[in-house]
Structures
1.
Amino acid sequence: MDAFLLGASEVLSFSTLIMMFFGAIAGIVAAAIPGFTVTMAIVLTLPLTFALPPLQGVSVMLSVYVGGYTGGLISAALLGIPGTPSALATTFDAYPMARKGEPGRALSLGVWASFFGTLISTAVLIVAAPPLAVFAVKLGPWEYFSLIVFALTIVASLVGHSLQRGLISALVGLAIATIGTDPMMGRPRFDMGIDALRAGLPFLVVLIGIYAISQLASEVEDPKSIKTGEKLIKGEIKFNNLSVMREVLMRPVNLIRSSMIGVAIGALPGAGGSIANLIAYDQAKRASKTPEAFGTGTPEGVIASESGNSATAGGGLIPMISLGIPGSAVDAILLAALMVHGISIGPRLIMDNPDLVYGMFVAMAVSSLMMLLVCVVSMRAFLRVAEVPKWVIVPTVLVCCIVGTFALNNRVSDLSLLIAIGVFGYAMKALDYPLAPLVLAVILGPIAETNLRRALMTNNDWSLFVTRPVSLIFLVAALLSIAWAIRGFLKNKPSIPQTKDHS
Amino acid sequence: MSEERDQMLTQQAGEIARLLSYVALLAVSISMFLEARTIPTSRFEALGAGAFPMLVHALLSLLLISAIIGAVRRIPTEAYPRFASQVVMWVQARRLVLLMFLCLIVYVTAMPMIGYPITTLIFLLVLLLTLSPRTKAAVALSVVLALVFSYGLNWLFAEVFNVFLPRGR
């Protein structure tokens, strides 16, 4: 209780609240810009939090995180462009609703659904994280290795058009992670005599290069669209918040189901909001009495997608706090922020730093309130951001990425790495390889290697990976996720002979 | 009908491009596997520093070989002669992306020598003026943005965050 009060008092201090308020604005604005993901917003926020105390820094980043999940809905609803990958399913119904002359209702529905989704996920986080952490302390390197194998197979099988390319992408990520000194004995590997590679590829540089640079390059693919800065938002923006809040609360089953899907998927390392919104939408459609209304502007669809993606914010923190494993790329950056402040990450986090963990729970709830406040008060002003043309966004965000990368380590050589990784990421994207498995593999690779080697140092018996029950469960789950994905691809094969080609 | 044919041709070109990527990745993977074998093992542990990379590259190579076999089976022989011209068309359509990467390479190479503010100012002016519509307002906005994100950001980082961006030699 003392730790809870200590954490809460730090989060609820005036200076933290002010910074969180600006963080929520930054998250919403950033995610409202097409091509600027929540991940990028968090990456750019990270260097700004270095000077703050750990809890304050993480609270600000959480407010950007929660704001970002909501901001993606602005361009999704008004322009039909998902501001972030997590707002993809929002475009299915919010955009038709806005086109029918109800842009205000579409936005308000999304905002309230996001708010309740975050609150539900925070409640689950508070209940689930501590017991899971106690359980996690009992896990050995065998279980951790198997868990990472499971995380990589599930993200490879859920993302993209091809399981094979998903797995290739994950293995390429693991291969990238092996460059530089090995994590156990410090022996140099694959550095080709290049100084910049000696310490390995910093994962944040990989993250910015793969996601941001390749995404911005994709934005300038069509010369015609970039040269026309025409206004796409039409129609009067009207808000009636109370009636919309009632509308959301009148669908409790959809709201709770979608939020729980968001929490569950967020808690699986590697999945995250970009998948949760699609699965929540799919489940809402299956359960609906009027599935034919989905895709034409039904509120059910907007609520499912937005509560689903916002709930992943809390869900993602469950493995991060209890196991020390990031649920998504954003959680990995939060993890990095804690590591920068010298806090050791892992199952002991909640025992060694309870005030920090409880403070994070409070920060989640406060962030969702901040987001709601900011959206309700100033949605009209945010609409201007969605109108910023691509020719302004691409060069300026590129410069922000360059500055952000340099500021991470004050190293110019990181910039060359960034460009090389950006070109590689763009090529992978153009060839229709999913990027999420690659980035997560770069993050999880050293953890997997350390645990594999530690397991065999403890006991030189490979069979322990399948004789220890929890490890066996994860490995069986990994196999099942691949089998399930193969079944899905085979089932869909005859119906989609001509898949969309990005090359 | 012709739209369907175009889509099919694009898909085949994509398959060939992916096949080439599988071959390139396989070559890199095999060479890294061989290099990993030369990393000495430690007497303190059963697995050495090269074991995990060998495991990864063995799995990756197997997956790539199966992908290559699948792709070769799927691609009709008449698709290969068309590929070169389709690549040229693809590159031409993405000239702005190439320009962007070219500007980035020059920018990052010049930055340590000339310094952040000047290189950023030139980089932003070139890119903004290339991408923007040809209007006076767009040119004026480009100049303002270039100044804010070069000298403005340099000042902000130096004075507020105590992070000194490259000053040049």
2.
Amino acid sequence: MSVAEYLIPYDFSPVTIAGFMLVLGFYGYGLLNMPEEDRPGSGRILVFMVGVMMCYAVMQTRFDYYSQYMFFVHRGQHLILHHLGPFLIALSNPLPVMRFLHGRIKPGIRRALVPLGWIYRFLQHPAIASFLFVGLIYFWLWPPIHFDAMLSRDLYWIMNWSMLLDGLLFWGLIFDPRSPMNSNALGYGKRILLLALVAIPQMVLGATIVFSRGMVYDVYEVCGRAWPMAPETDQLLGGLLTWIPPAMMSILGILIILRRAMREDGKITPYSEELKATHS
Amino acid sequence: MSNRFRLPLPILLPVTTLIAVAVLMTGCFSDDQSWRSKDISGLMPELAFELTDTSGETITADETDGEIRMVFFGFTHCPDVCPTTLQKLSRAVKDMPAEFQEETRIVFISVDPGRDTPERIRSYVDFFSERAIGLTGEEQALRKLSKRYRTTFGYDDPDEEGNYNVSHSGAVYVFDREGDARLLFRPELSVEDIRADLVTLAEESRT
């Protein structure tokens, strides 16, 4: 196979291509037109691009073929869509670009978008965000659902998109660049708690897959593998990918939040007069 | 207080609703009809192919319309899965009432066109059942067809004698008389279960 064949989509999805083009287009437009002082530096732009392109690559290249026919590659795909890609995108802090773009929206349209804001705030409640984050992994990996999702093209796309969108929501909440000291962003302690909480069920699930003696996901047996590989090996690798890297991502997230919290320690003055009074 | 999770009613309610919906949704995925195999209605597109039959002629799916078709991807050098599956399907068809046997077709599609010539496929399928037909085609056409049914195949590196293993789907895709995807037989399904589902399907699409 030539390099070009590896790069073209296995299962061409116009919606996915359009989605990624829109994101990159808006990001580029924001960068070019926003005021100099708000513009993210080249490092942040690079991290954003790497995050977006990773998600694109696992959805619209030959990688998607292997994800459909090998359990462990599928787990790798979701690791990128739900963890690594959104992790990098959120870490690059695209918030100033989004704020600028939001300012450019016509007031009429902005008003129409208000209900979206409500849904967003509802989904970003820490309890709901963490429930969704873990719940989606369990939902799509529940054997009968997983079987259907791998058989039906529509369900397959819904699965991948739901993982990506939920990943963006969750890591956006965790790496919210605003400080909880002077905004209503989630407190650092709570962010750390969430990261630890979501890691545990993922580790349990991963370990369950690794240590199960029978075949949990027989759909790959049924649909044929991309290349002949022992089903047990495929399942073992897939289980390990569900278990270890997500737990490491949580720890990495905790370290980043801790560093941010330590930097802010004692730096920020209490934001209200009332609080100032209690401190003096 | 501000450092703790507070769950006031407006938040608690949606959370419980969310859980309730998730639990209820599981009901949507259970089968209403008591099929013994996997119901795949609505999950897959209708039957369509253009391949070569064992006499070297081009054959399309429409030409087999009006029959219940059991599509199976395999290769004639297959050591275990293919002979077992074809054996099971053939026995299940034989155990059906005579009038239904005439309307049932086993469609064996070889995904190893490099070694499987139409003649070889013919002697292979004839050995198992008179209700079986064997098809194959260019690798590109086979790839397109297998992609349509969310399956694939792959080749191992050949050994010194040129023998190689082929990974392929172990399942049988069942299409009704109209060509709609209906059932999926997993490799471990018994002959009796296959027979029972075929009879149910044959009776159902008659009425």
